[in-house]
Amino acid sequence: MENKIRVGSAVVLENKKGEILLIKRKNEPAKGKWVLPGGGINFGEQSKETAKREIKEETGYNISVGDFITTLELIDPKKSFHRVILYHKAKLLGGNFRLSNDAENTMWVKPKKIKTVKNLGEWAIQVLKEASCL
């Protein structure tokens, strides 16, 4: 297997109630974990456009992408896994919810309850702290 670095874009998506969207991954990486929604950046695509496209694909929601939060580098040499993910804040605009093949489930969570979510992806709390959501 060839080792590759994959670059992605993800968001801290907030609804009008101030809740944050989490997605439970159906597939690897992070299978069974609750994560912030996003996906891989295509060649020639800007990270904010990736976030809009991925959220639409994964949930059916339309979003507006706002301020940059942080970049995380996730590396697991044993699994030949190396991802660089750019995180932005985002607001829910609307759309018709539908669950994609990549997701097992979704949930909206109040920021003060996020730390109680079982199987939360370890980097989600770090990003939420940097986004001033926790």
Describe this structure as you would to a colleague:
The chain is of the alpha+beta class and 134 residues long. The protein has a single domain, classed as Alpha-Beta Complex (Nucleoside Triphosphate Pyrophosphohydrolase). It is 16% helix and 43% strand.
Short description:
The protein contains 2 helices and 7 strands, in the order ββββαβββα. The protein has 134 residues and is an alpha+beta fold.
Distinctive features:
single chain, 134 residues, alpha+beta, Nucleoside Triphosphate Pyrophosphohydrolase, four-stranded mixed β-sheet, three-stranded antiparallel β-sheet, 2 helices, 43% strand
What is the β-strand count? 7
* Assigned CATH architecture: Alpha-Beta Complex
**Spatial strand order of the main sheet:** 4-1-6-5
What is the CATH class name?
Alpha Beta
Name the helix and strand elements from N-terminus to C-terminus, one letter apiece.
EEEEHEEEH
Overall geometry comes to: globular
Structural class: alpha+beta
Assembly context of the chains: single chain
Relative helix content = 10-25%
Instruction: Extract low-pLDDT stretches.
Output: none
Q: Can you tell me the CATH superfamily?
A: Nucleoside Triphosphate Pyrophosphohydrolase
Task: Count every helix, treating DSSP H or I runs of 4 or more residues as helices.
Answer: 2
**Rg from C-alpha positions?**
14 Å
Strand residue percentage: 35-45%
Question: What is the total number of structural domains?
Answer: 1
Largest sheet: 4 strands, mixed
Q: Alpha-carbon distance between the termini?
A: 39 Å
Q: Which whole number gives the mean pLDDT?
A: 91
CATH topology-level name: Nucleoside Triphosphate Pyrophosphohydrolase
